[in-house]
Amino acid sequence: MSHSSESGESDDGGDDQEASSFPETNIEDALTSFREQWQRELEISPKRDISKAHSSNAVKIDVAYDDECIEAKAKHLFLKGIEHEQSRKFYEAIQFYKRAVQLVPDIEFRLYESTKVKSNDDNVEGLNNDLDNIDDNNKNQNDEGIEESDLFIKLCKIMNNNKCVCFPKFEQDTTHISALPMEIMLYILRWVVSDELDFRSLEMFSRVCRGFYISARDTEIWRLACVRVWGINCGTYIPKYQSWREMYLKRPRLRYNGCYISKTSYIRDGENSFQDRFYRPWHLVEYFRYLRFFPEGKVLMLTSTDEAQNCVNSLRYRTPRNSSILVGHYRLHDNYVTLVLKKQEVNGINTYRRKKRESMHDSGEQTFHIEFEIQDHHKRLNSQLKWLSYIIFTRYRSGHEVKMCLKEPSVKEWRVSAIDGRYPPFKFSRVKSYTQESEAPLQ
Prior knowledge:
Number of helices: 14
Distance between the termini: 145 Å
Order of helices and strands: HHHHHHHHHHHEEEHEEHEEEHE
Low-confidence stretches: 1-22, 49-55, 117-124, 137-149
C-alpha cells in the first residue's frame, strides 16, 4: 500500500511538472513570434517612411538654412571690406576679404551674380511702365496748365527712374557697358570726339538708345568744343542760343573732319602747227586747291593736279612730308577766317651747284595772306569758303618787298570782282581717314 501510494504520489507530481513546463514554452514562443511579427509590421508601415522623410527633410532644411546664413554672412563681410577699401583703409579691408573668402571661396562671383542686371525683356516692360507713368503725369500737368514737350527732359526722367544708362538685350557673362558709371561713359565720349572734334561720331553714338542720347548731350563736352573752336574768349551761349550744343552747331565755324576743295579751270592758247598754220589748239587746264584746318589754329594748303585721294592723304598729318604744301595759321572772327601761309623750310645740305643757281636767281620768300567768308551751301552749314582777299608778299634778300593784291570789291564799288572770277569758292568734303583714330581726348 505504501509503495503504491508513493508511486502514485510520484506519478501525479511528474504530470504536474510536465503540465507546468508546456505552458511556459508556449508563452515564450508566442512572445518571440509576436515580436517578430511586430517588427515586420513596423518595417512595412508607411508611417515609418513618412517619419523618416520628415526627418531627412528637416536635416536638409537645416543644412540649407545654415548655408544661406553662411553666404549672407560672407556677403556682409565682403561688403564691409569694400566700404573700408573705398575709405582707403586697406589693411582692414583685407581682413574682411579674408574672412569672407574663408566662409565662401567664390563669394565675389556670387555677389556679382546677385547684383546682375535682368534681361532686356523685363527692362522693356519697366521702360514701358515708366513711359505710361510719364504720360499719366503729363495728363495731370496738362490739367494744371503745365505741359512738358521737351524730349530731353522726358528721357532724363526715364534714366533717373531706371538708375542706369542702358540695359543689355540678352544676359551675358562678360561685363556690359551698362555697368559703367556715367563718369566713365562721358570720358569715353571725350575720346570719341577727340581733339579733332569728330562730332559726327558722337551724333551716331546718340542714335543707339535713350541713355546714349542723353550722354551725347552732356553740357561739358559741348562747352569744351566751343572753347576749342573760338578760344577762351568765346563768351557764353546766353542769350542768343539755347545751349552750348546749339551754339556750336549754329554759330559760323570751320569744319575739321575733311577738306575744303576748290576746282580751278582755264583755257590756254596753244602754238600754231608747223603743218597747218591756220590751226591753233586750245588747252583746258584744271587743277585743285585743298585746305585742311586743325582745331588748334593750324592750316595746310596744297595746289596740285594729282588725284584727289593722294592729295587728301598728304594733308592727314600736321607735319606734312610733301614739300609743296603751304603751312600756316588762321584766325576765326565771326563768319570770316584769315590765313597766313608760307612755304615749308627744307632742311638739307645744299650742293655747290644749287647754291650757285640760287645766287644767280633770287625768287624771294613769299608769304600768302588770304581771307575767306564762311557760307552755307545747299542747306549744309559752314560748307563753303568764299574768297575775299588774296595778298602775296615777296621779300628778296636785298630787302626789297613786293606786294600783289587781289581783293573783293565793297558794295560801294560798282565793278566786276577780279578775285571772284579767277578763284572759285572752296566746298567742304568729308574725309573718313581723318577721324579713324583718336590721339588724345577732348580737353
